[in-house]
Amino acid sequence: MTATVSSSDHAGLLAEGDSSSHQPADPRLKSLTGVLADTTHKIQQGRSAGAMVWPTGFDSLDTALGGGFRSGELVLIGGPQGLGKTTMALQMLRRAVSAGTRSAIFFSFEHDAHAILERLIAIDAAQLDGETLSVNTIRAVFEARHTRASSVEQQFANTKGGAEAVRGLERYADRLHIHSSSGMHTGISEIRAAIEAVTRDTGQAPFVLVDYLQKVPARERGLNEEERITHVVEQLKDIALTYEAPVVSIVAAEKASLVAGKRMRVHDLRGSSALAYEADIVLILNDKYDVVARHHLVYHLDNAERFRQWVVLTIEKNRGGVDKVELEFQKRFEQGRFEREGRIVQEQLIEERIFVD
Q1: Which one of 43, 117, 177, 302 is most buried, counting C-beta atoms within 10 A?
Q2: Structural domains in the chain?
Q3: Do residues 243 and 197 lie in contact, with contact meaning Cβ atoms separated by under 8 Å?
Q4: How far apart are CA 231 and CA 246, in angstroms?
Q5: The pTM is what?
Q6: Helical ranges in 186-271 per DSSP H
Q7: Reported confidence tier of residue 29, pLDDT bands at 50, 70, 90
Q8: Rg of the chain's alpha carbons, rounded to an integer?
Q9: In whole angstroms, what is the distance from residue 106 CA to residue 113 CA?
C-alpha cells in the first residue's frame, strides 16, 4: 500500500527537514545549486567563472602549466642548496604584484626585509631595456655613508638603471607585503592572521610565498619531525583553498640527497610523504651540469662550463595538467634572478653526475 502525503503535510516536511529552506551550519557545505548560483553571479558581474590564474612570469613554465598557478593550489619548489629556489620564487611573487592590481605576502624565514628589497631592485633594473645592476653594487650603494641623498631613488641616482628600478618598484610596493617570520613564533595561526589582515586591507586574497616550509613551527606538542611537517603542509593546502589563492612554499631536501651530482626528485624532499600528496604542483630544480648525460660532455668539452650556467626545472607533479616536463633557465645570480625565457631541455638527462677530467 502506497502512503500519500497531502500538500499541507509536504509543506510542513519541507519546513522542518529540507536543507534548501535554511543555510547550513557549516559554511564550507554547499549544494550544487549553490555552486551554480555562485557561478552565475560571477558571470553576471563579468568575472571569470573558473579559477583565477596567476602567471609566474617564466614564459615556458606558464605554457606548460596552462597559464600559471591557479587559485587554491599549493605549489612546492625544491632543489639542492644554492640553486636559486628563493630567487625563482621571488621573481614569481614580483610578477604577481607588478603586472596588475593583485597583492602578495612573503613569509621570509631566511632573509630580512632589506635583503629582499635589494634583490627586487636588481630584478626591476633587469626589466628596464636590458639595464643590469648587480646585487653587490646595490649593497654597496646602501652601505655608503654620509651621502647627500634624501631618498632611496636619489641614493641610486648615479647608478645605471638604479633610480628607474626604484621608481618601478614603488608602483607595486604597497601591494607586496613582507613578513619577517620566525621559526620560533610564526606558526600557521600567525600566517593565517597575516593573510587575513592583507585580505581585509586590500579587498583580495594575496599570492602567498613561504620560505621555507620546514621552518614553520607547529603549536601541537609531542609531534615528531614528520608529523610536524605533515601538519604544516596540510594547513598550507587548507589556506590555499580557503582564500582561493596560490600558496607557494620552498621546501628543504633530505640531507642524504644533498650529494654533489645527485639529481633531486620529489621523494628527496625532507620530512614527510604528505609533501608530495598534498601539493598540487611540485617543481624541482637541479644544476644542469650535474644531470646531463656523459656524451654531451665528452664530445663537446666546451659544454661543461656552459651547462653550469643553467638549471633544469622539472614539473614533477601537476595535478591539473601535464607533468614530467623538463625546462631550463639561465642563471643571472649576480643580478639576483633567472632569465625569464626558458626552454625545453634538449639533452639527455640522467640521475647521477658524470665526472669528466
Answers
A1: 177
A2: 52-344 (3.40.50.300)
A3: no
A4: 18
A5: 0.85
A6: 188-202, 225-243
A7: confident
A8: 24
A9: 10
